[in-house]
């Protein structure tokens, strides 16, 4: 991977507008795209790729400007994730998850907690990982004086070895209270395993983690004051917020698949010998498929951008978020998630119809787009997203806030 562009970023002014940040992300994506297929096959831990994100300033996009951050909002972050995922779905996921965990303290914690975390993260260019798999209920949190001890195991810990800090989640012993805390990724007792061996999103470092009496002060427990959690409706926005992260890198992967396929079609695909055309780009069915897939992608991108703008209004006034507003937003997110899933799977599969048999060569790496989308879209069943929308339409029913809705 070339580092020339990375060096150049150190001497250029930081982006200011949303458009400038998205353009910076496109520059990073161009570097990533150069050897994306090769890196996917190698499956090496993406230390260099994460450093690229740091050098470009993307990791501090949401951070406070007074501490060196970009001071931008979620709609911009989602677009940046989309750009990165066009080149590399794994790195797009890592960056999107980083943004969510970077804002976890603001979503769940007290003002004092999140102001401290966001300042430190921006100053030190922390990259966040998270050991927060809600289906694993085997992390127990115990008290030890003024400290908490996290003990157990999580099957998935996205970011793991490439992160500077990790968000831990567990259940306080003897209660049903969940506790979130941010700890250094090299903390004693935190062991990341090299057991992520899936068909897609190969570079996300999403393997399991053993958590053996990882110690952190009670004061780091997000949202707890005097050992009592302070609930707000805003706390529950973490789910629709990360679901839009998912949507963003699904759309990015789909867009990257279309762009890569179009380049292949223009330069390598041969016209069909019985079609009557000298060039593949003049084949009517090829033109039709590209037009169809592009229209579908643009439509769901427009929906997603609109939903992201709606969500930002809630983030701007966290104490004013009501159950109704939160529920309506989740339904809109569910609709975007359903459409993005279907469109990304269709695009990443159908590109082979317009690139031809030779495009299936391993060296081309076109299969990585479908493998990446197929792997992550199984995170939670899309049928349940459509159910949220259907129940809202028929009965005005709001989705119950859970780990997935």
Question: What does this protein look like?
Answer:
By secondary structure, the chain is of the alpha+beta class. The chain folds into 3 domains: 4-124, Acyl-CoA dehydrogenase/oxidase, N-terminal domain (Butyryl-Coa Dehydrogenase, subunit A, domain 1); 128-229, Butyryl-CoA Dehydrogenase, subunit A, domain 2, CATH 2.40.110; 233-395, Butyryl-CoA Dehydrogenase, subunit A, domain 3. 49% of the residues lie in helices and 12% in strands. The protein contains 13 helices and 9 strands. Strands 1, 2, 3, 4, 5, 6 and 7 form a 7-stranded mixed sheet that branches. A two-stranded antiparallel ribbon has the order 8-9. Strand 8 (224-225) and strand 9 (228-229) form a beta hairpin. Helix 9 runs parallel beside helix 11 and helix 9 (238-267) runs antiparallel to helix 12 (367-376). The radius of gyration is 22 Å and the shape is globular. It starts with a helix and ends in a 10-residue tail after the last helix. The model has no long low-confidence stretch (mean pLDDT 95).
Furnish the topology, listing elements before pairings.
Layout: H1 4-9, H2 18-33, H3 36-42, H4 47-55, H5 74-87, H6 89-102, H7 104-108, H8 111-124, E1 128-131, E2 140-144, E3 147-154, E4 165-172, E5 178-184, E6 190-192, E7 209-217, E8 224-225, E9 228-229, H9 238-267, H10 284-316, H11 323-350, H12 367-376, H13 382-395
Parallel strand pairs: 1-4, 2-4
Antiparallel strand pairs: 2-3, 3-7, 4-5, 6-7, 8-9
